[in-house]
Amino acid sequence: MSPMRIIILLVALVAAGGAAFLVIQLSKPQVVTETVTNEKLLVQQQEVSEVQVLTVARDIVVGETIKADDLLWSPWPKSNVVEGFYVETTVPASIETLTGAVVKTALYKGEPVMPQKIVMKGEQGLLSAMLNPEMRAVSVEISAESASGGFILPNDRVDLILTYEQKAQPERGISERTLARTIIKNVRVLAIDQNFANTEEGEVARIGNTATLEVKPEEAELVAMAQRLGEVSLALRPLDQFVSGTSRDPRTDLLDGEVDANGAGITIIRNGQPSPAGVGGN
Are 64 and 130 in contact (CB under 8 A)? Predict the structure, then answer.
């Protein structure tokens, strides 16, 4: 073999070896080293001094009586305690003391109790705290027969029914008879003989002698007149009809001495003398 061919063969072998080495190196997995620096975040917590403040456990509407289960002690920042809050370290018996109080201004769940928003049982102004704005409280005599057997309780809704004697009016062809008319609908009962709320043991039917009702000013006049004309009875409304703003349809026309819608005369006392409604002056 000539020297030239030997040289060419050696060069080819060297080139093949270099190529094989490159292929081997490229086929190896590459290892990348990354340096990650984790910075430590330091969170500084400032300790806040707290006290136990008396709050309500549920929403309580105006006129509702507070029960022991409606109150609880809740942690409150000491720096945010204002004058009037019931603090456990100062007045630890507040739950027992406030049980039975009436809400004067609506309270919402988690809200601290303030003396300005409640009326203690027995205090002056208890009944007025239960009245809605622009309403009046008027009382009517009741019995078991005229008040659904004594099962009417505060915050129930009733219709007022007037039962009266129609005087005979021969000239109009009207004979003496007993009539009944609904004079006001959907009236809220505020109290039964000062029984403003249910007892802690639950609802108890109580047959009282007087029912205090929440009415509008002109309706109060109607109730007063109705008690002079005859007997006023309370008809209990179903729970699903306890809707505020429902039409009350008051028969205020009776205040003007109008004749009954069915033509029946109602006797009204004027200056100590009886006269049929719609007859004579107002």
Answer: no
